[in-house]
Automatic annotation (TrEMBL):
UniProt name for this protein: Dimethylhistidine N-methyltransferase
Boundaries of every Histidine-specific methyltransferase SAM-dependent domain copy: 18-317
Any GO BP annotation: methylation
Superkingdom, natural source: Bacteria
UniProt GO molecular function: methyltransferase activity
Family matches, as InterPro entries: EgtD (IPR035094), EgtD_Methyltrsf_superfamily (IPR051128), MeTrfase_dom (IPR019257), MeTrfase_EgtD-like (IPR017804), SAM-dependent_MTases_sf (IPR029063)
Amino acid sequence: MLKPEGEDGLRSLTDPAFRADVLAGLERRPRAIPARWFYDRRGSELFEAITDLPEYYPTRTETAILETICPTLRDLVGSGRAVVEFGSGSSTKTPVVLSCVDPCAYVPIDISGDFLRESSRVLAARFPDLPVLPFEADFLKPLTLPAAVAEQPKLGFFPGSTIGNMTPAMACDLLRAMRESLGQGAMLLIGMDRIKDERVLVPAYDDAAGVTAAFNRNLIERINRELDGTMPLDAFRHRAIWNDDRARIEMHLEAVRDIAFTVDGRAFAMAAGETIHTENSHKYGPRDARILLRTGGWTPVAEWTDPDGLFAVYLAEA
Ligand code: AVJ
């Protein structure tokens, strides 16, 4: 995969899939760009900042669940598996799981190569005896994992309710792809955010400090930088809404006035109030989550939640 921009700030080639998704997304009605494109270097940094916000309960809640379940998890998973993380890994959750399940290797998979290599370095320093094998790839499709772990049983790790970014149909396809990638005897440890009061959900995606707004609007800056765009940053407002019918938080970039701009030489116009839908964050009740896992080819083995029932962690087997 081509890297968007190096640490030196030099412009380099843009991922052709980013260009295709942005142009198609701006042409479609309603306009929508897949959330995966948030995570350039700056976007990944802003997301890390979101996880520390007082309103954003998922990260600290899931981390606490993982810490609490460690002894039970170890019994259920056994030791010596290769832990395959879908996403480049967080500085807090990943070490909790790695120290708990005594893995033979750690394989983080991510499309953001820069961030992947950096977080891998940090982890390798913390676990000097553990082979860390970063794998730059799009995990939405079945993958051939590094040969070094071909024979080892796998524990897939998909924390953070990242699955919530997908519609249930796409989530089901992803779970099936993971099952294929992870192979015989695999297990999956997955976090899913629960349905709860809108007054808790919305502030988690529209925080007082404006970090989530900056995360959303960073997509405009990325488009302008990488796709030669002229989108007026000051004309877009961050919106987070709870779609109760579809059990999801939606993030949008709303035009605050009539605007015209170009991206990659193509002209676009948006009327005041029109939005670009940039993210879905689906929430799952207990039965919803188990049905999703089964539909995706996984059998739930155990389920844990925090005392307030905000977030849930599932262990499933292929
Ligand atoms: C990384 C997809 C789990 O949906 O909560 C956080 C992304 N977006 N705040 C989520 C996100 C805005 C996050 N996931």
